[in-house]
Amino acid sequence: MSPSSDTLGALRNLVDAKDGFMTGHQICKVRRPKRVLPDWARTQKSIQELLLKAFPKLKTEERQRQRAGRWAMVIQLYFRSGKSYRETAEEMGEKVRTIEMVIRSIHRTAKGHPVNGRLRVKRGRAVIRTVSGDGDKDPIGEPRSQLTL
C-alpha cells in the first residue's frame, strides 16, 4: 500500500524534502558475516562419523539418539544453512544458551577433544630414585631415598 499524495504533502510540510528521512529509509536485508563451512560438515558421511564419535552408543541408547538428533539438526541449520544461533534456537524451540553450548560441543568434538571439554590425562605415581653412596646411609645401614632431578 503506497501513501497517498495528501499524506506525503502533509509530511513535506513537517519535514524538509532534502532531509535524509524522506529519502534514506528503505528495507534492507539482514547482514551477516560470511561463515566458512568446516570440512567435516561438507558431506553426510563425515557428519555421521562425527556423531558416532560423540555418541558411541547411538544405536542402543535412546538418550544418546535424542542428543545426536539435536546435534544433527544444529549442524544442518547452523553450519550448513548458515543461520545464526538465535535463529537456530528459535526454529528448534530451544533456549539460545542451549544451542550455544551444543555448537561449542560440536566444535570440540570436531577438533578431537572430549565433548565435555575436559582433556583426559593419565596420571601415574611420581618416580623417586634412590641414590646410594658413602654418606647416603641410614643409621641402620639402609640407603636413603632422595628425589633427584
Question: What features would you describe in this structure?
Answer:
The chain has 149 residues and is mainly alpha-helical. It has one domain (5-111). It is 46% helix and 0% strand. The chain contains 6 helices and no strands. It has helices at residues 5-14, 20-24, 44-54, 62-80, 85-92, 96-111. Helix 4 packs across helix 5 and helix 4 crosses helix 6 (96-111). It is elongated and about 90 Å long. The mean pLDDT is 79.
SSE arrangement:
Blueprint: H1 5-14, H2 20-24, H3 44-54, H4 62-80, H5 85-92, H6 96-111
List descriptors.
about 45% helix
Kindly state the number of beta strands: 0
The termini sit apart by 84 Å
Content-based structural category: mainly alpha
Strand content: under 5%
The low-pLDDT segments are none
Major sheet characteristics? none
Helical segment count: 6
- The arrangement of helices and strands along the chain is HHHHHH
Mean pLDDT: 79
Shape: elongated
- The level of helicity is 40-55%
Taking all Cα atoms into account, the compactness measure Rg is: 32 Å
Count of separate structural domains: 1
Give a nutshell description of this structure.
The chain is an all-alpha fold. It has six helices and no strands.
